[in-house]
Amino acid sequence: MEERSGIITFKGNPMTLLGPQLKVGDQAPEFNVVDTSLAAKSLKDYAGAIKIISSVPSLDTPVCDAETRRFNQEAASLPANVVVLTISLDLPFAQKRWCGAAGIDRVVTLSDYRDRSFGLAYGVLIKELMLLSRSVFVLDGGGVVRYLQHVPEVTSEPDYAAVIAAVRAIL
Predict the structure, then answer these.
(1) 0.85 exceeded by the pTM?
(2) For helices 62-75 and 92-102, what crossing angle results, to 10°?
(3) How confident is the prediction along the chain (171 residues), in pLDDT tens digits per residue?
(4) Are the C-beta atoms of residues 170 and 50 closer than 8 Å to each other?
(5) How far apart are CA 37 and CA 29, in angstroms?
(6) Which listed residue, 28, 29, 46, 164, has the most CB atoms within 10 A of its CB?
(7) Of 63, 123, 125, 53, nearest in space to 89 by CA
(8) Vertex 92: Cα angle to 107 and 133 (nearest 5)
(9) Kind and range of the H or E element at 150?
(10) Residue 103: is it exposed, middle or buried by C-beta count within 10 angstroms (0-12/13-18/19+)?
(11) Which residue blocks in 52-123 are alpha helix, DSSP H?
């Protein structure tokens, strides 16, 4: 397994990411996760849609909460062919509870708890914490990476304007 350092920190401490370094122009790798009803989901389930994939450590933290709420708001102004996926290692039951309490209705939450398929394929699994790093990927309808952002400090929010601009550039 490839290990990469010098990309992110958590509370100022350097962390190691497991998996490959994806680049703009790469074909996005397939992954296997589950939705809040424990149904299997993969990248193929969203074929043809422009995808914002937001990788977060846990919805039950203030920054992940704020980020997912913000993407839920942003999704309201995007066309129907854009889907926002938030992936974490939270259990699907916790994701469902959190979405209900937060009123999230435009973001699809998915759990990578079973085998870390997404985290390892996208190079966002933090070795020291076994959580996903805060990263955002924008994929076009054909599954090509058109934008990516590894937030340098895991406890900081992403650059939302850059993500939305990347989506609008594809539209």
Answers:
(1) yes
(2) 60
(3) 899 999 999 999 999 999 999 999 999 999 999 999 999 999 999 999 999 999 999 999 999 999 999 999 999 999 999 999 999 999 999 999 999 999 999 999 999 999 999 999 999 999 999 999 999 999 999 999 999 999 999 999 999 999 999 999 999
(4) yes
(5) 24
(6) 28
(7) 125
(8) 70
(9) strand 145-150
(10) exposed
(11) 62-75, 92-102, 117-121
CB 120 within 8 A of CB 33: no
Query: Would you give the distance in Å from CA 31 to the centre of its chain?
Result: 12
State both tokens at 54.
């937001």
- Helix-then-strand count for the chain, H and E: 4, 11
64 is catalytic: yes
Q: Of residues 64, 75, 82, 104, which has the active-site annotation?
A: 64
